Structure formats: C-alpha cells, structure tokens
Amino acid sequence: MIVRIHRDKGERYDDYNVEISDGMTVLELLFRIQENIDQTLAFRYSCRGAICGSCAVLANGRPVLACKTPLSRVTDLKNGGYVSLPSKTELPAGGILLEPAPKLPVIRDLIVDWEPFFGEYRKLVPVLKENNNHPEKEHLVGKDESRELEKYTNCILCALCWSVCPVVNEVNGYPGPAALAKLFRFYLDPREPNGIKRLSLADNEAGWWACDFYTNCRKVCPKGVPPNAAIGRARKLLKNEEVGK
Amino acid sequence: MGEKDIYRHDVIVIGGGLAGLRAAVEACDCGADTAVVSKVYPLRSHSVAAQGGINAALGNSPAAKDDTWEKHAFDTIKGSVYLADQDAVEVLCREAPETVLELEHWGTVFSRNKEGRIAQRPFGGAGVPRTCYAADRTGHNLLNTLFEQANSRGIKFYNEYFVTSLVVDEEICRGCITLDLQSGKVYGFASNSLILATGGYGMIYDHSTNSLINTADGMALACNAGAQLKDMEFVQFHPTTLYGSNILISEGARGEGAYLVNSEGDRFMARFAPQANELAPRDIVARSIMKEIEAGLGFDGGYVHLDLRHLGAEKIKERLPGIRQIAMDFADLDPVEVPIPVQPGQHYSMGGIDVGIDGETGVKGLYAVGECACISVHGANRLGGNSLLDTLVFGKKVGKKACNERNGEHVSAVKDVMSREINRLQGLLNNKGEGFATLMSEMKKTMFDRFGIFRDEDSMNEGLRSLNDLGKRYKQIVVKGSGKVFNQSLVRVLELGYMLDIAEVVAVSAIERKESRGSHFRTDFPDRSDDQYLKHTLIKTDKGQKRSIDFSPVKLGLFPVKGDGY
Fold it and tell me: Domain A2-112 adopts which CATH fold?
C-alpha cells in the first residue's frame, strides 16, 4: 500500500510502499515505516491505548487518534459520519495520506506544537477551588452527579477538537472546545463553591459566546466528550443569571 | 555552550507521572523552586493508563466496615511473599486513607456508592473491598488532578526534554543533562536535589501492557551514577492483557466478578486457588493461565477467555466503560456479548532504585520514587491498587525531603558533563553499524522467552549471553538522524541503551535468586527458600561499568513470615 506522509514543515510529502497486516492501526503503520524503512520519520506516541492523548493525526483528511484507528477505517470511503478536512496534497490511489493535526504550528513531520492549546487551557485556571475545613472527611457526591462530571473528566486533552473547530484561530483568544469543557466541569463539580462565578471567566465575545455550534468537537472526540453541550448549558446559565439581576 | 544553556532550580523532578507530580507539588509547597523535566507532556505519562484503582482502608463498603490499615498491611505483605520491608508497608497503608482523601479534596472525581462516599471494589489478594476507583480510569483522573494542582502552583515544566545523563560530582548529584527534543539543543540543569520519577521498563519485554515510553530511563541513569538497584528479578506479569496488543484489561473486571474460562468452558482458577479463585494475587493467576495454555486448554494462539457477560450490560457500562471501549476499539468485540481473549503480559517492576522511606538513594542529592524506585513495599509481587498509592504516599515524602536538601548548586560540574555529553551524542551520529530496530526486537524476545513467567538456569544463562552480545553490537549502533529537530531516531537509540543496561540487571538478578517467590518462578528451584533467600538482591555498577551483587536483609516486625496459600 502507498502511504504518503507530510514531512518536515510541509515542504514535501514522502511516499512509502508498506506491507500491511490484518487489523493494523495507523500507529502500527507509522512504527513499521520508522523501524523498517525510514528512521527519520517523527510522530508522537505513548500509551497506544487511546488514553494518553499523544497521537492525534489527520488520516485521509479525518482527524483521528492514530493508535485506535485501524487502516480499514481510514480507507473505507462509505463510512460516513466523519468530519473531513481538506488536505494540502492528493490522496494516493487506494492508499493512505497522513498529515499533522491542523490549527497548531507544525514542528516536524506529524508533530505539532501543543503550546497554543495548553496555553488556552491554563488561562481558564482548571483546578478545583474548594474551601473545606475537614480534610479528614470526604465530600459526599451523588452517584448521578459523579456520572455527569465523568462526561467531561473523560477528556484526554488530545487537541483533536481544537483541530476541527472552525472558530479556533478565527476568533482571537478563543479558548477552544476542550478548555471550555474543562471550565464547565469545574462549574458542575458539587465540591466547587464558586458556582456560576466560575463560568464568568469565559463570559465574553471570545469565550462561551464565540462558539458557532458546528459540533465538530463532539463528532471527533475519541472519548465521547460533548464540549458543545457544555458551551450550550453555560450560555443558558449565564443568560438566566443576567435576567435574574 | 554558555550560562544561559544551564537552568537552575532547587528541586528538579524527572518524570511527570503521578509520583513526579506529587513530589513536585510537595517540594513547591515546602518553598522550593521546583521544575519538572519530562520527555513527554506530563499527561502522556504512563500513570494515565492505570485503570482499576487505589487501595485505602476507608471501610466505605458494607463488606469492609471493619477494615483497618493493619489488614491492608497484612494483605500487602502476604502478597509480597514476605519480601516487602514491613516498616515501609506500614507507612504506605497507614497513610493511604489521608492520601486518597487529599486527592479527593484536590478535585479527583471518584465513583461513588449509594451514600455518596468514595466507592470501593474487591481486588486480588485483598480480604475486603478496599480499592477506591474512578470507573476504570482511576489513573487518568488522578493524573489530571495532580497536573491541575501543579499548574496552579506555577511549577515550571520542561516538556519533551530527554535526560541523557545525571551529573554526579564528589559523590553528590548536581543535576542532569538533557536534549531538548523540539530544538535538538543540549541543556544542563543545576539543582540542589534531583528526584527520579521515570516509571518502569516495560519496553524491554515483548508483550507488555506498558506505554511505549517506558524504557527504563531513570533506573539506568541512577545505576550508571553509582546508585544501587534492588530486587530487579521481580517482574510482574499481569494475568489479563488483551490478546494481540497486550493492552491492559483491569483487575477491576475480576473485582466486579468476571470469570476466567478455558477452552472447555471451565473456570480453572478454582483448581489453582480454591478460596480466592479469580482474585488470587497476580503472580498466581498469571502462572495458572500459562499452565492452562501449556496443557492445551487455551485457545489457538495462546489465550483464555475473560467472561464478563453474566455481569450484565448495565454494570459493565457503569463500572467498566473503559474496558468495554478498549475491547471494542482494539479487538472489535463487545464484552456485553462475547468474552474477551486475554493472555498474561509484562506489567510492572517490583524492583527498582534502592531507596529509603524518604526516597533517598545511596548518592547524596539523588532521590527516586514510584515504579522506578524500590522502597520496598511490593516485595516479590505487587497487589493491584497499591502502585497508585505508592506513587502518592512516597511522592509526598520525597518532595518534602528533597526540598530540605542543601548541597548548593555546582554549575561548573554541570558544564563539564554537558560538554562530554555533546561530544557523545555527536559521536553516535557518526557510527557505522546496524539500526536500533533489530537490536530492540531481539532484546524484547530474549527477555520474554528467557526471563518471563517461568525461568530456569540454562535458559537464563543463554539469555544473558544474548544480552551481552546485544550490548556489544549496541556500541556500533547507527543513528540515521536527519536534522536536530525531534530526532526520534536518536531518542530511540538512547532509550535502547538504557533498556539494555537494565535488561542485563534483571537477568543477573534472576539468575542469582535460586528459589521461587512471587513473580520470580524457577522451574529448577520451584520452592520458596526463606532460609537462603528472605533477602533483597542488590546490584551496583562501579565507574568501570563492572557490576557487583550484594544482599540486604528484609525488615520484618509487623507480621511473622508464613505460608502463601490463597
């Protein structure tokens, strides 16, 4: 199979003729190339079990985690429901095209600079600010409350949602879906005493209100996190708060 | 190379997993200027993959009302086959409840029981439900919490800096030398104290559950800096890893009631551990599965079934959603409908850098904590749910201890080693030999075949000869690097060097211990011998790279040494 890969900062694409095994994932394919054909190929990896968030790439225009995506799913043209992004080059016939995740500066080959993504995450101060004088006791949290929180704590900060969000990089200072979902997670937390004040950190034109609800974030999330739902609920809460004043 | 190429901090932590971040947070809270140096972004560390939970005698489950830290300690010591140091186990278990509660107050989202308290499930080798959990994503939830805490304190992170050497001058650790992967530049770090929290060495083995970044870095750095390694023959094989990819299938699955079943539909654990069944300690379950497979009672390819179906869809979806997702993503099956094919795989290192209760190594200013260290609380076999606990309890202790270290900074010593390292790395680029891939796969195969679940003298000696040969070939290894930016080929060659060092230490230690205990099972010495081997194995490397073997006594005192039936 011909595998075409984005090299360096995009000056060129290299084609590799790779022998494919049954059930092979995109990440296994990358290792096969690096270990047997071209040691100079660079890509990120760690857990290879879809929990560490290292290996987001664009495979035939589809934003995916390389480790959990079998090649068959990349080449299956019928398989609908995907967000598909334009490529800078042509797809090799019957083959696979691998490119870095968009909207972040490319460092080399498939590796992007995560700093803009984590920078926005840090700006929203994602940390529980409890005031509790009983460190010897646990907070009581309902089963359902805990389950609701899980929806958002499942985020692995892989930045796939950032890569597919039409608002990111278009609205200056937009924190992106993952950071907003994280902020909402802290608002939701029953241990958090600041309530709606927590949401005000992104209560501006470039924050909650910048989202256009394309819902690409939800569609590509490998962990099923719904940032669009968090944003919608935050807006409603802030609106009600405004009316109540 | 100038002053600006050397960063200075009071405390430098190498590794951004649970142990490293907990140590960094504590050192920072004690007032030290603290930095974390990691070869990956911290959230990509292997702690994130921990699934099943963290042990603490909270007594939140009705079946565990009378649980105490002493019972937790007894289970841990019995599970360790009496090789754990009992003073360290006491600290681990006594401080477990406050440790879990601290993380709860810092924001970790745990699963809850009906009363809204932290939910606890049964785990292998434990008498009662003692394992606190966040569905089957406990490591992920804990690591995110600690990352949030570290960020909120303004701890400085050097992400994607790969450590190539420690700096030891006049028997004191003065810092380390790193390769900044993004720029390809070499930077030095000068510190008062340095904490290694680099995790395990899973990648020296075929069939490992570990992240691909677990390449023995810290153990090799410490060993080459003159620190001792302890109990390195004790390698944990997890009974249930997904057939093929060896991704972990949490012990939480068996904790929730899953069955292990052979090809004849027989729940075979009843024959090997009549009382504990599927919830016997990991070493026993892993060996039992291998025996079934060797007796022709496995499935083609060498696996057995982990059957969750009787738990019902609702329980699987609520308690084990991550396991279900892994089975669907990586084996294309839904455990609600069909059993999961599983086989044992390398999982954890009980051994590590020899440290005291506060993480101190034999080298002044150098500390170690987490999987790369051996205190020892896990002895010959670690109980599930005790490794996350180990990282947090002792991470806090080492952070406090390192913060109070006052060796002063010695930038000149860092500079000397830095120029040596720049030359060494340059030299690697000029080598003319073979690439890293064949050497790596030969090492992995040798370790799994010769130093796996069943071991014997002849096979291990053959294995050691292979490793020595690989070591020689490594000296001529070639880096087909292109450019400085993210030269992954160079990183993988350096990692392989660390792995070969540590593979040899595992091999030498395993050959030396002529008995069977916990995870170390010798077919030529199938019995445990307390008379000869109730002691820790120590390996030291001197400056001429010669290794020597020594032993130290096990610290007893809480519980008398007894049998290990389950």
Answer: Ubiquitin-like (UB roll) (3.10.20)
